[in-house]
Task: inverse folding
């Protein structure tokens, strides 16, 4: 049985996938359910400890950067006092500061005090950020992970130095609940292993070649929005056929979760599972055929291809 406040919170999460407030609310709910004290953490000074081992600096406190910070803390990998998050307007990180994360540092200072540096700014902001932190980078101890779309490992090393360990990662905002799909690429070695271990804590990972990262951006990172849009469409259909919005939200989302689990856990091909629920002259095949006549599969495929092409051109150094 679902209580009304839980159902309302569930529906509100679909209103804006990328609102940090929604992410924070979800995390607080999960923390309460698990007995975690994440929601009750107190503020820390804007400094990491003298020992930079096992500290992370997330440069870019947008939706993804915040989701990573909270996701790793929720997974138990870091305590908030070992996670620095920077942003051009630090006042917007007040919620993180209240949870005990380190805020208020410059990107250069946060990088100097950390072992792992996560680049999480917008592509157009990356060139200036790299120039800013370059003097603080020590190739002998720093690991750099970039979640910036379009910026290659060569682009980053061209500013930070050729000896710096750089790994590219493409997660999605589901890191905050430990359900991300993250693709990674980089030179084989400790840095790539460390990065994969980090992202394994907040979902599933796949190591791919760098030339496939743009495609991963479209299917995994943008894909969160694509699949949520299909859930929203199912919700709207449910409302039209008579369900209250809260009930339609629950039915659509849980059904989508079950469908995905059949593939992930049972290893079943989607079409095989579709065949199990389509019978001759049945209501399922009637609905599927109408959706295909309206372009369901074609629209999804075209959207993914367009997003992949767009991701390839996001980073410009000029």
Result:
């Amino acid at each position: 049985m679902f209580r009304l406040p839980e159902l309302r919170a569930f529906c509100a999460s679909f209103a804006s996938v990328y609102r940090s407030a929604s992410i924070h609310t979800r995390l607080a709910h999960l923390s309460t359910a698990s007995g975690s004290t994440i929601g009750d953490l107190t503020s820390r000074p804007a400094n990491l400890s003298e020992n930079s081992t096992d500290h992370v600096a997330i440069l870019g406190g947008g939706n993804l950067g915040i989701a990573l910070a909270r996701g790793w803390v929720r997974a138990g990998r870091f305590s908030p006092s070992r996670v620095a998050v920077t942003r051009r307007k630090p006042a917007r990180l007040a919620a993180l500061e209240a949870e005990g994360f380190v805020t208020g540092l410059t990107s250069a200072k946060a990088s100097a005090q950390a072992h792992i540096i996560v680049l999480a700014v917008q592509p157009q902001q990356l060139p200036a950020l790299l120039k800013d932190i370059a003097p603080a980078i020590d190739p002998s101890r720093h690991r750099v992970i970039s979640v910036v779309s379009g910026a290659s490992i060569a682009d980053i090393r061209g500013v930070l130095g050729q000896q710096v360990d750089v790994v590219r990662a493409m997660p999605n905002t589901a890191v905050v609940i430990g359900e991300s799909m993250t693709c990674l690429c980089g030179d084989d070695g400790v840095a790539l292993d460390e990065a994969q271990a980090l992202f394994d804590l907040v979902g599933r990972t796949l190591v791919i070649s760098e030339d496939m990262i743009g495609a991963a951006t479209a299917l995994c990172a943008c894909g969160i929005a694509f699949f949520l849009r299909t859930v929203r469409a199912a919700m709207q259909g449910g409302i039209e056929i008579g369900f209250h919005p809260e009930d339609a939200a629950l039915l659509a989302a849980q059904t989508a979760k079950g469908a995905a689990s059949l593939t992930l856990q049972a290893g079943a091909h989607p079409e095989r599972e579709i065949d199990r629920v389509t019978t001759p002259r049945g209501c399922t095949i009637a609905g599927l055929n109408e959706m295909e006549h309206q372009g369901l599969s074609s629209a999804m495929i075209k959207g993914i291809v367009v997003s992949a092409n767009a991701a390839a051109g996001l980073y410009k150094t000029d």
